[in-house]
Specification:
Layout lengths: L1 E5 L3 H13 L3 E5 L2 H9 L5 E5 L7 H10 L6 E5 L4 H10 L3 E4 L4 H14 L8 E3 L2 E4 L4 E4 L2 E3 L3 H12 L5 E2 H8 L9 H15 L7 E4 L3 E4 L4
Length: 224
């Protein structure tokens, strides 16, 4: 089994290399984001161990670019941070597992073997509604071949709506599906972001695909 370790902590990376080699892995190591991305993009590895904080390219950037290049090698991310947002961001961008430093080497090995057994994930299907297209892997949104730039939160709301295409969803449904579970603000924030989306995915194209159901919520129509 071939594993690529991308970590700028030289001592930790060497410790991982020795330990993984002793467990039967064939190991390569990169210490910055640029080298790590190019090695990972070769697709010759069974699993990647990727630190988030790296010189050159951030770990999140590496995952995003790999998935955009349709490289589906399983990724286990390492981080000194243990916040919910950090883990959620990693998974949203295409990581497959997450460990917080310091971690148990025994647990790392078990997680890596589980990822290798599972294999590379299938490429997520493109989500469509009329001429609107959402690629969950690359997070690219297009309408009639025009790419639309969205903020991460706008993208989250749109992906939720398109996954529930044709269904009426409430503001609370969207809050639970897109915002952090600890969010305690007003549900009017959903209305604000729906407005942002309409100005980007509908207005320039003369369409109205996000329908307001008064007193209930919203529905994304399969038109246009």
């Amino acid at each position: 089994m071939r594993v690529l370790v991308i970590d700028d902590e030289v001592r930790l990376a060497e410790t991982l290399r020795r330990g993984l080699t002793a467990e039967g892995f064939v190991v390569e190591v990169a210490h910055d984001g640029f080298d790590g991305l190019e090695l990972a993009a070769s697709g010759d590895f069974d699993v990647l161990v990727l630190d988030i904080m790296l010189p050159g390219k951030h770990g999140y950037q590496i995952v995003r670019e790999l998935r955009a290049r349709q490289v589906w090698t399983p990724v286990l991310m390492l981080s000194a941070k243990d916040g919910e947002y950090d883990q959620a961001d990693a998974f949203d961008l295409g990581a497959d597992d997450y460990l917080t430093k310091p971690f148990s080497f025994v647990i790392l090995i078990a997680r890596l073997r589980a990822l290798v057994r599972r294999g590379a994930p299938e490429r997520p299907a493109i989500l469509t509604a009329g001429t609107l297209s959402v690629d969950p892997a690359s997070r690219i949104v297009t309408r009639t071949e025009h790419e639309i730039s969205l903020t991460p939160r706008e993208y989250g709301v749109l992906e939720y709506l398109i996954r529930h295409k044709g269904d009426v969803v409430t503001k609370n449904d969207i809050l639970r599906g897109v915002w952090d579970s600890n969010y305690e603000g007003s549900d009017n924030v959903v209305e604000v972001y729906v407005g942002y989306l309409r100005r980007k995915i509908d207005t320039p194209f003369g369409l109205a695909t996000i329908e307001t159901i008064r007193g209930v919520g919203y529905r994304l129509l399969d038109i246009g």
